[in-house]
Design a protein that fits this description.
CATH topology of chain B: Ferritin
Helix content of chain B: 55-70%
Structural class of chain B: mainly alpha
Strand content of chain A: 15-25%
Number of helices of chain B: 6
Radius of gyration of chain A: 13 Å
Low-confidence stretches of chain A: none
Structural class of chain A: alpha/beta
Number of strands of chain A: 4
Strand content of chain B: under 5%
Distance between the termini of chain A: 26 Å
Oligomer: heterodimer
Radius of gyration of chain B: 18 Å
CATH topology of chain A: Oxidized Rhodanese, domain 1
Shape of chain B: globular
Mean pLDDT of chain A: 89
Order of helices and strands of chain A: HEHEHEHE
CATH class of chain B: Mainly Alpha
Largest interface: A-B, 48 and 44 residues
Order of helices and strands of chain B: EHHHHHH
Helix content of chain A: 25-40%
CATH superfamily of chain A: Rhodanese-like domain
CATH class of chain A: Alpha Beta
Number of domains of chain A: 1
Amino acid sequence: MKWMQFLTPAKSIDFNETESYISQHPGEEITILDVRQPSEYQESHIPGATLIPLPQLSDRLEELDPEKPTLVY
Amino acid sequence: MLAGKGFKRVFNVAGGIKAWHAKTAIGPQDLGMDLFTGKEEPQDILKVAYSLEQGLCDFYISMEIEAKNERVRDLFAKLSEIEVKHQMSIYKAYNEISNGETSRDEFEKMVENKALEGGLSTREYLDLFNPDLNSEIDVISLAMSIEAQALDLYQRVSAKIENAKSKDIINKIANEEKVHLASLGKLMDSL
């Protein structure tokens, strides 16, 4: 079992840090990942966000680039 | 989950979308995607982008005519001028990558009329955001919403585009939209 996946904490960043991070990086160099349900995404999402609902995430990881910084909400 | 799967830098956006106070985009993930097949050559990308900018420019011009407040009219005029400049840079990019001298008229004849920038129509934008067309703040907010929607569309399309050069072009256009959005934010703050 890969315990690391349970133990590695992701750093939390607030709104100001997120907005600044997104504005300082070209869109193609980062991933903004929306893990909510499609109806929530449809109502409102951060521009450029990729939708992969949390229940599907483990099966769809190959759609994402692990080398890119990934901002998750 | 991601950190343990080899993702090198993962950030949790604290508070999620509720904490996000900047402009958001709306609609399903495939909104506006029908404007692009994914197989476009660089020239095709520029033609579609030009037509989307044209849609937005026409929208601002029609709003300029409709607005009664002079300051709002001036604002719409400025917004349409920005789109005209953006169109000019797209046209220049087309000639650069085509190594040709296509005239502006010839280029415009090749461009099909598509939806407004961001994949929604004028009426849909007005219905969604219901702006007070006499309020500068409402007008800038509307423009920011459209830019956010355009940025969102271009970034979603980028993932679909296969040709590397076409992808570069759409990324460049997306990043220009991001700069445009930031400058509208500054304009809003100055009011």
